[in-house]
Amino acid sequence: MSNVPADLKYTREHEWAKQESGRVRVGITHFAQDQLGDVVFVELPKVGTRVRAHQTFGVVESVKAVSDLFAPVSGEIVEVNAALAQKPETVNQEPYAGGWMLVVAPSDAAEWEQLLTAAQYEQFIAEGGH
Amino acid sequence: MDTSLKRTPLFSAHVKAGARMVPFGGWEMPVQYSGIVEEHRAVRSAVGCFDVSHMGEFEVEGPGARASLQRLTTNDVSALEVGQVQYAVLCHPHGGIVDDLTVYRLAAERYMITVNASNIDKDWAHVTAGAGPDVRWRNVSAATGLIAVQGPRAEALVGRLADVDVTRIGYYRAASGRVAGATTLISRTGYTGEDGFELYVGADDTEALWNALLEAGRADGAVPVGLGARDTLRLEMRYALYGNDIDDTTNPLEAGLGWVVKPAKGDFIGREAIERVRAAGPTRRLVGLELAERAVARHGHPVVKDGTAIGVVTSGSYGPSVDRSIAMAYVASAHAAVGTELGVEIRGQVRGARVVKTPFHPSRVKKG
Q1: CB distance A72 to A115 below 8 Å
Q2: What is the total count of domains within chain A?
Q3: Pairing of strands B110-115, B182-187
Q4: Which CATH number fits domain B283-368: 2.102.10.10, 2.40.30.110, 1.20.20.10, 3.40.50.300?
Q5: pTM, whole model, 2 decimals?
Q6: Other C-beta atoms lying within 10 Å of the C-beta of residue B180
Q7: Residues of chain B with CATH 3.30.1360.120
Q8: Which residues constitute the domain of residue A44?
Q9: Among A102, B195, B243, B358, which residue's CB has the most CB atoms within a 10 Å radius?
Q10: Do B228 and A63 touch (CB under 8 A)?
Q11: Which residues of chain B does A63 touch, with a Cβ-Cβ cutoff of 8 Å?
């Protein structure tokens, strides 16, 4: 049932990260959105904010739960998904596409190598995901 | 899973249906099946079935049953005809709420009360304390299953399976009959703001009735609904949830439940304290808030006015039918008027909120 695209990297906090010509697009995984249930609010920082790997950058709220969002890599936010303000349910519907949250210009290329591969993340969630 | 949690007769049916089970008030209950918002919408547009077997049922009978209930509840039990149901609260002598409940008059000298699952032990001690020899209390909770069938198609669905004409059961009335062959108390009550029934049935018959309802309701769009949607549905109606909006420290007047307090009936536990509150006016009131943004106000978040805390959120969620973030909160009476602009502090940030008329979503219960 788990949907873990092979071309992405992952965090233990259930974010995905995607390389896009030197930048990193970030969202939450299929597993994460399924655990949360209906997403009703996503709180994101402004473009220009600096984030640090493993630090929180925002919050996602479902009907029942609040969950912090963690940056996979350090850097400056160059884009945020403003469409989620009006349609937060996109995070449930398309977690790897329209439900993306940030694009980061990374400041430390070495951090990418520390992220989980798809195989490692699949193993992680098979063991319960926490 | 924690094995100390209690299970209803429908536990295995929920697991088989793929429900997400969570601990709730000492019970292992389904929070959702397909998803809270989808289940919420099914109840508003079609019909949903809820397992509420965890709730408690006590029967009281005897020549002193009515007097006993009159002393315990705030509402006027003498107004109840046989087959009629009444909402009320039990209070402490200091006026705080022990529990909220429904009172059924089953026969001339026999009543049943339905109480919240998490309060069964506390309520049992409260109602039986000082009970005289002319009443007999029985805790029938474990032997009783309870299924709520709620939504615009609930009457058609229950009607098809019942051997009595359910269209003749009025709002807050109950009648005995067989539903899908099972002996059932068919009560036109609920906790969603939609028309519908709550079906009291023997524990051993509960699973067969549950399956029959979902099977017969398939064409109506009937779905099982978990506690998650039960909460968003009741919140849109501004129905109080014990433990969130009302508890041992809140009195019925500040909670907006003055309509079930009938001091003219004579003495009852808490009357004096409540009448003192009435004379002075409640210092705080439970109000409905609509947030300016989609951030969710949750239980315990401070309510502020010009930088000063003037209240606290008791319940809050995204309301799927109103499509916005809504909440219930106790606020100082000076700030309780509809239209008052307030703020809710969510994770250190103040978000705009306005006191609004409730219910948030129009009730469609079948009154009269």
Answers
A1: yes
A2: 1
A3: unpaired
A4: 2.40.30.110
A5: 0.95
A6: 21
A7: 11-50+142-236
A8: 9-121
A9: A102
A10: yes
A11: 36-37, 228, 232, 317-318
Q: In a structure prediction context, what are the per-residue pLDDT tens digits for chain B, which is 368 residues long? A: 456 899 999 999 999 999 999 999 899 999 999 999 999 999 999 999 999 999 999 999 999 999 999 999 999 999 999 999 999 999 999 999 999 999 999 999 999 999 999 999 999 999 999 888 899 999 999 999 999 999 999 999 999 999 999 999 999 999 999 999 999 999 999 999 999 999 999 999 999 999 999 999 999 999 999 999 999 999 999 999 999 999 999 999 999 999 999 999 999 999 999 999 999 999 999 999 999 999 999 999 999 999 999 999 999 999 999 999 999 999 999 999 999 999 999 999 999 999 999 999 999 998 75
Residue B32: how many CB atoms within 10 A of its CB? 25
Does residue B260 belong to the interface with chain A, where contact is any CB pair within 8 Å? no
Q: What is the ipTM of this complex?
A: 0.88
CATH number assigned to the domain comprising residue A18: 2.40.50.100
Strand-strand pairing, B223-225 and B48-51: parallel
Q: Is residue A127 part of a domain?
A: no
**Cβ contacts (< 8 Å) between A65 and chain B: which residues?**
none
**Coil, strand, or helix at residue B137?**
strand
Fold of B11-50+142-236: Gyrase A; domain 2 (3.30.1360)
Q: Report the C-alpha gap between A42 and A59 in whole angstroms.
A: 6
